[in-house]
Design brief:
It is a single chain. The chain has 268 residues and is an all-alpha fold. 78% of the residues lie in helices and 3% in strands. The protein has nine helices and two strands; from the N terminus they run ααααααββααα. β1 and β2 form a beta hairpin.
Length: 268
C-alpha cells in the first residue's frame, strides 16, 4: 500500500472513530456510553493478552473476564472515589519510569494480565466519572494527549534532531516532545480563556503533568510491543493498528485526570 493510500485509510478510520466517540459522548444515555467504552476496552484487553503471547482461547477468556470485571466495577459505583485511581497513579509515576529506564522485559503472563487490568479498569472508571461530571470535561482531558501527539509529530518532523528514547521508539525526538509541551501550554491557555479565566499555575501544572503521562503511556506501549516483537498491538483499526495503539496515552492520562479532579475539587 502506497503512502497516499495509507494516509487516506488512516484519515477515514480516524473520522469514523471521532464521529462515533463524539456521538456517544454527547448524545448517548449512560448505559449506551458504558457499553461503548466497555466494548472498546475489552478489545484492548484482547490485544493486551496477545502481547503476552496467550493463545486465542486464553485471550478470549481474558477479554470476557475484563467485560465482567467492568460491569462489576461500574455497578459498585466507585468511579467518583479517589481510591479507584491511586494504583494507576503509582504505576505511571513510580513503576513505568523505572521499567523503561532499566529496560525490563515482559513479565510473566499472570503478572502481565494483572497489570493490564490495573491499567484498563481505572481508565474505564475515569471514562464513566469524567463524562458524568461533564462530557466537555472528558473531551478537554482526552484532547491533551491528542494535542500533544499531533504537535510532537509535526515539530519532530520539522525540527527533530535528538532522539527522545532511541531504544524504545526511534521516531520520537526531544524537539518533538518540546513542541508537544508548548502546544499543551497553549491549549491550557485556550481552555482557561474559554472558561472565562486566566491561566493559573494549578491548571498549567495539571496539563503539563498529564502531558508527561501521555508521553509515558505512549513509550510504555511501544516498549511492550518491542519486547513482544510486534509492530502494532492489533489490526482492528485499519491504517492505525490496534485499539491499544490509539489509547496508550489515555491509559495514563484519564485515570490521573480523574484523580486530580477529585482531589482538587475536594481541596477547592
Amino acid at each position: 500500500m502506497n503512502n497516499w493510500s495509507n494516509l487516506s485509510l488512516r484519515l477515514a478510520t480516524a473520522a469514523v472513530l471521532i464521529a462515533a466517540f463524539l456521538s456517544a459522548l454527547f448524545f448517548a444515555p449512560a448505559p449506551v456510553w458504558f457499553a461503548f467504552v466497555t466494548l472498546f476496552l475489552t478489545a484492548g484487553a484482547w490485544e493486551w493478552a496477545g502481547l503476552f503471547k496467550l493463545p486465542p482461547r486464553a485471550r478470549a477468556a481474558y477479554a470476557v473476564l475484563t467485560l465482567v470485571l467492568s460491569a462489576l466495577l461500574a455497578s459498585a459505583d466507585i468511579a467518583g472515589l479517589a481510591v479507584a485511581y491511586w494504583p494507576s497513579l503509582l504505576i505511571w509515576v513510580a513503576l513505568v519510569p523505572i521499567w523503561l529506564w532499566r529496560g525490563w522485559p515482559l513479565p510473566a503472563a499472570a503478572w502481565g494480565l494483572l497489570l493490564g487490568w490495573l491499567l484498563l479498569m481505572p481508565t474505564l472508571l475515569a471514562l464513566l466519572h469524567l463524562r458524568a461530571e461533564s462530557p466537555w470535561l472528558l473531551l478537554i482531558v482526552a484532547a491533551i494527549a491528542i494535542v500533544a501527539d499531533t504537535a510532537a509529530y509535526f515539530a519532530g518532523r520539522r525540527f527533530g534532531r535528538h532522539k527522545l528514547a532511541p531504544t524504545i521508539s526511534p521516531g520520537k525526538t526531544r524537539e518533538g516532545a518540546l513542541g508537544g509541551a508548548v502546544a499543551v501550554v497553549a491549549y491550557a491557555a485556550i481552555v482557561a480563556r474559554a472558561g472565562g479565566h486566566a491561566l493559573n499555575i494549578t491548571l498549567l501544572a495539571a496539563f503539563l503533568a498529564l502531558f508527561v503521562l501521555s508521553v509515558l503511556g505512549d513509550l510504555f506501549e511501544s516498549w511492550l510491543k518491542r519486547r513482544a516483537g510486534v509492530k502494532d498491538s492489533g489490526n482492528l483499526l485499519p491504517g492505525h493498528g490496534g485499539v491499544l495503539d490509539r489509547i496508550d496515552s489515555q491509559l495514563a492520562v484519564l485515570p490521573v485526570a480523574a484523580l486530580l479532579w477529585i482531589v482538587l475539587g475536594a481541596s477547592g
